């Protein structure tokens, strides 16, 4: 065995061996329990970053561990290759999205292989390939046939920068999830999936996801947003139609003194037409369309609105109330209309005070009467109804049921349930995506492409138009097609599908990635699915995970799968963060532009002192990224893997540290020197497996520590994925081995105990630093690969080897049992016995007459 560890040489050697042996390829095996583990697949953005490295290292450790535990492990990888990220990057780099994507896939695949990840590359998929998106086009047609996909004109979220529509879930605080620029409403004809039909089922199953982080389940439930209440109808004064309102507080209906419509509500321009308010209302509506929706509904945001020039009628007391449009009402919630009850809603109270609108209290606390003129805030507590006609004196909780039932008899309302979740808009006005497989015919309308003509292939030689506009509408060979029904000239759909469609079923495709008879082979899916462990960022808690759960239900409804939930367990790892460094002259600096360390850091370009900023997520814009390629060249993949796992538990953020990487490298060097230094001693010797009491006392601590470490590391990986504490345990084992070496000695079984300790350390570290451990394992005389060796089992009796149980008697009666170190002195045992709580209470005056110790057996105390 070489004296010094050379990571580059060792890692290249073992990666070549693994590939030549096809070690990571996997097929169904009914003789083994299956274990399907996957990480969220990446956009082929150009280079892997430290977030990728951390995520995929976590997954690889679990995959290798489970394989050593005897599981048949599926661990695949692929590319989320369609969509705006790839297209925007291609535009920025003045190249074609197809060329950009395929080149990046090749480069990133090489990078991932250099990390030693145990992927079955035979199952690799790229969502931009026709053999993949053919099948989601097929599913789209099935959904279209069954009314689950439909097209309508709707107010949508439009990103001018990205030149496309965004789903509600892709708008973050009024901005585009990809480019960060403002999103504005726009009316377009779009394709939708009826995800809202599954709202209740998706919500119900949130309680059946025990393997998911509670915060993610809560985020899903909140986004689905179930509200129980009533749908009420307010007749418009002078018109034969009504304003529909969803409210969770029908008990306050009599206190509704004005109506508020969202600026985007279609009734706003109609009600203001022909009135003096039309001009001001139109200006207000246009201004609100450009405002941030999140800010508009914030408690801190100033409420403003305008009278639209019309009135409606309160269905309970038949009083006319004015109709306003206001910034705090949104079309995304309920019906886009709010019955405003200022006495019992603070937002309505503030608005009423600002615009001098009436306030009528209809719920009074028990034994009190509210004075509307003296009120300084809305009353939102429980009480009894007043000013509510036949319902006066009723408890408000009972009125929540009674009032809707009364109105239902008159055709003016009913109890109902509302969901925040809206149907999923999947149309994208961009080029780089899966074509929507329909044809528009002037005679036949929308017609699905025949299955025999699938896939509708995206022309990959198309030139992009300025500003990111899609060229598909201008490509005559693509857009012109005969109608499948009547044969007349017609036009293909030029919108493409949202990239989240591709990522909503890729985990099923991994089960049979080359299947050409359907989306997947059902026998394969029946064996592998659902995914046992899914790993990815919490930023996908709503978008990707919700859509994947919905898509799985669609597949289940068509009888293609037998389960509803795709992921049994979910781990959301934290971000990789790093401090920023900034020069007063040159702004943010990359690490290579900083000289020195600590307080003495200066700018390489001008020599100015560098200001150190707060720790934040690694980002190119913050110039705080660390290139994994540089680290691989300097330290090797195993050191990088070790640091990512040791620096923080997976679910927490990881603070980048050069010192931490150096520390990981030093530890591997320490393990290497231990194995190399003891190689002659342990050569040809088997690990000790006898009883602990057959060992000299000097060897018992190492033997006990070996088995205690096996137990702890196994539990840390199996139960908690706490790799940091698992690594710390192995570090302690290595330290104990060095302590024995420093003491010296030539006891019997010394080589066997040392061999057992080194073997355990190598086996326990092998999922974490696989190349490193393969090399040591081979040097110890074993055939490759360590991945095919069974995970070590601990000997429970060895954990108690350095302990003994002592019985304590007082005046001949058993009063206590002590568990103490086997090498404890007699005097210390006596002191321990006398300090025991169960013994003290039986001592006369707290001071015994005589204390006798029988070595290894008992302490006898006589008063």
C-alpha end-to-end distance: 65 Å
Report the biggest beta sheet as strand number plus sense, adding barrel if it closes. Answer: 4 strands, parallel
- Name the helicity range: 25-40%
Determine the number of helices (DSSP H or I, runs of at least 4 residues): 28
Catalogue the unreliable spans. Answer: none
Estimated share of beta-strand residues: 15-25%
Number of strands: 35
Strand order of the largest sheet: 2-1-24-25
Radius of gyration: 35 Å
Overview of the structural elements:
With 863 residues, the protein is α+β, with helices and mostly antiparallel strands. It starts with 6 loop residues before the first helix and ends with a strand. The model has no long low-confidence stretch (mean pLDDT 91).
Task: Please summarize what this structure is.
By secondary structure, the protein is of the alpha+beta class.
Strand and helix layout:
Blueprint: H1 7-21, E1 34-39, H2 50-68, E2 72-74, H3 84-92, H4 97-114, H5 130-145, E3 149-159, E4 164-166, E5 171-172, E6 175-176, E7 184-193, H6 199-204, H7 214-224, E8 226-235, E9 242-247, E10 258-261, H8 267-272, H9 278-289, H10 293-296, E11 305-313, E12 320-326, E13 337-340, H11 346-355, E14 363-364, E15 384-385, H12 396-409, E16 413-419, E17 424-425, E18 427-428, E19 438-441, E20 445-448, H13 476-479, E21 480-482, E22 489-492, E23 496-497, H14 499-502, H15 506-509, H16 522-528, E24 533-537, H17 543-557, E25 570-573, E26 576-583, E27 587-588, E28 594-595, E29 602-603, E30 611-617, H18 628-635, H19 637-646, E31 654-655, H20 658-677, H21 679-682, H22 700-720, H23 723-743, H24 750-765, H25 770-779, H26 796-799, E32 803-810, E33 813-821, H27 826-835, H28 837-840, E34 850-854, E35 858-862
Parallel strand pairs: 1-2, 1-24, 10-12, 24-25, 26-31, 32-35
Antiparallel strand pairs: 3-4, 3-7, 5-6, 7-17, 8-9, 8-16, 10-13, 11-12, 14-15, 18-23, 19-20, 19-22, 21-22, 26-27, 26-30, 28-29, 32-33, 34-35
Helix pairs in contact: 1-25, 2-19, 3-4, 18-19, 19-20, 20-23, 22-23, 22-24, 23-24, 24-25
